[in-house]
Amino acid sequence: MRKVLGAVVSALSAICKAGTLLSFAVLICVVTVQVLGRVPGISAPAWTEEVARFALLYLVAFSCGLAALYGELVNVDLVTNALPAPVQLVISKIVDIIVVLFCIMIAPGAYGYVVNSVGERARSFDMPMTLVYVTIFIIPVALAVFTIARLLGFGRPMQHEEMI
């Protein structure tokens, strides 16, 4: 069973890594076009602003779960750093459970938001907004799935040290 779960986590991680890289590449290309559009004689298409926002949403959607899995999410640890390591571990597990429960609570609303967006189109180019709004559903699902994977030992614990 652990091998199967490990394979699922690896496959989802690979999909999210590819999605993160693709989103970042699109964002870089679109922002480059926007910057070049500031040069006299070169104009940037109007849709680049909207595509940049969409790419940023996808970047967050694909990378937030990976950040949870690898223990790289923002961590407020002013109090926990002073505690013994076993207590820090327990608090970390409790926080992970709270994150999973919160994600499970908001996922139905996020799904409803996506369903209600059917028929809407992007303003500057003809694209269904459902393709954009699905990121609102991907975020809590990815956070929940990868946080559960970390709870089951497939990721890394949250980092509790300064990296300065």
From TrEMBL:
Question: Keywords of this protein's UniProt record, alphabetized?
Answer: Cell inner membrane, Cell membrane, Membrane, Transmembrane, Transmembrane helix, Transport
Query: Per the annotation, which location comes first and is thus the protein's main one?
Result: membrane
One cellular component GO annotation, for this chain's record? plasma membrane
Give the stretches traversing the membrane.
Answer: 23-39, 51-70, 90-111, 131-153
Q: What region holds the Tripartite ATP-independent periplasmic transporters DctQ component domain? A: 27-152
Q: Name one GO molecular function term.
A: transmembrane transporter activity
Membrane topology label: Multi-pass membrane protein
As for subcellular location, the record says:
Cell inner membrane
GO biological processes: C4-dicarboxylate transport
Task: State the protein's purpose.
Answer: Part of the tripartite ATP-independent periplasmic (TRAP) transport system.
Q: What is this protein called?
A: TRAP transporter small permease protein
Organism of this sequence: Faunimonas pinastri
